[in-house]
Input
Amino acid sequence: MEYVYAALLLHKLAKPVDEDGIKKIVTAAGVKPDDVKVKALVSALGEVNIDEALKNASMAAVASPAATAAAPAAEAKKQEAPKEEKPAEEALEGLSSLFG
Output
């Protein structure tokens, strides 16, 4: 995750999101950068419009609370389904059959 944060920081500062920049930020944070992860991230971000991705992410975050608020209510409704209870007489009949 720290690699993504480094890329976002570089983008925010209008610096090129490249391997060298990400490595410098991760190193400054006190972590030894993993060259494979850095290369993979830079390669993946090469095809992404970061501004557009951030815009879409912020819209999803606004819509998300409504969707997540509905989920617990639906789950609570499932749990409230009426349980079939045996009438007391049936339960007593079953119990009496144990004793002959």
Residues 4 and 83 are 49 Å apart (CA to CA). The radius of gyration is 28 Å. Helices lie at 2-12, 19-28, 35-45, 50-79, 88-98.
